[in-house]
Design brief:
about 290 residues, TIM Barrel, DNA polymerase, domain 1, 2 domains, 3-stranded parallel β-sheet
Length: about 290
């Protein structure tokens, strides 16, 4: 069975494709048989995803990706770090979850305004005209779900200020970043479990993303951090990921099984490039869920 439990959509967050394109490609072209749309801080796409999955003969898990804050006293000088978690198979009509996600999305708009202000400060140094409220509205106009830095990067490209998304981040979006609305791991667990779902630590060994690598580069230390401070709050670990090598995936799977945790996996596909279903994920992942 081909599985992909980490895909982003245009309707919900920062995917490049809409849901209809995603499901057509996943079902007919890639033969994916278990899938989850996991947009950032948004479950806007979930109801439509359920319908499309059924029409394409794909088993479906409700999904969302949450950015959380985590502190370990022995790592990172005891300061909060940003990590990602995935919620699966929750009730998409849960009122508490809907309300919290709405608050997170509202804060994302405020954060985007602050990031643009910081970018304007850089523009002053470079002798460039500042972005205005009209520019911010133009950025927002292209957002169907939760606004984030990739949307600002796309606008910088469109305005001819940078050539690529990577250049946008390197020149502006890293140094001009503003923290997201804090959501600690315990609250994320309460939200997802309260809605009947499972909370999974996302891509913990990703060397280029939001992961435990920011606290400890070596996998054994990452496992120690999870064992010390996360087991109470997570139900599983995303072992297979497009930026996990085979050794990392194997180590995380062994640890998860030893700790009685679920194991999941996904491509983290934003359709740029399209890599849905390209991460080899074993059938044991599907067997953990009631489908």
């Amino acid at each position: 069975m081909k599985i992909d439990l980490h895909i982003h959509s245009r309707e919900g967050s920062d995917g490049h494709w809409g849901l209809e394109e995603i499901f057509a490609e996943a079902g007919e072209q890639r033969q994916i048989r278990l899938l989850s749309i996991t947009d950032h801080d948004s479950i806007k796409a979930q109801a439509q995803a359920v319908v499309l999955a059924r029409s394409h003969g794909i088993a479906y898990l409700s999904g969302v990706e949450l950015n959380v804050t985590f502190v370990h006293p022995d790592y990172g000088k005891g300061k909060p770090v940003s990590l990602d978690c995935l919620g699966y198979q929750f009730d998409i009509a849960n009122a508490a979850l809907i309300a919290k996600l709405a608050a997170l999305r509202d804060y994302r708009r405020h954060r985007a305004e602050q990031i643009v202000e910081n970018i304007n400060a850089e523009f002053v140094k470079e002798g460039l005209p500042a972005f205005t409220a009209a520019d911010l509205d133009a950025i927002q106009a292209d957002v169907e779900g939760a606004i984030g830095r990739p949307h600002i990067a796309a606008y910088l490209i469109r305005k001819g200020l940078v050539k690529t998304r990577q250049e946008a981040f390197d020149r502006y979006l890293v140094q001009c970043d503003v923290p997201k609305m804090p959501l600690d791991l315990a609250e994320a667990a309460q939200l997802i479990r309260g809605a009947g779902g499972k909370l999974i630590l996302a891509h913990p060994g990703d060397p280029n993303g939001t992961s435990l690598v920011t606290l400890a580069p070596a996998v054994p230390e990452q496992l120690q951090i999870i064992g010390d401070g996360m087991l109470e709050f997570i139900d599983g670990i995303e072992c297979w990921h497009s930026r996990h090598d085979s050794d990392t995936a194997t180590a995380y799977r062994a640890f998860a099984r030893a700790m009685g945790l679920m194991v999941t996996g996904g491509s983290d596909c934003h359709q740029h490039p399209v890599m849905m279903g390209e991460v080899a994920i074993p059938d044991e992942v599907a067997e953990q869920f009631i489908l």
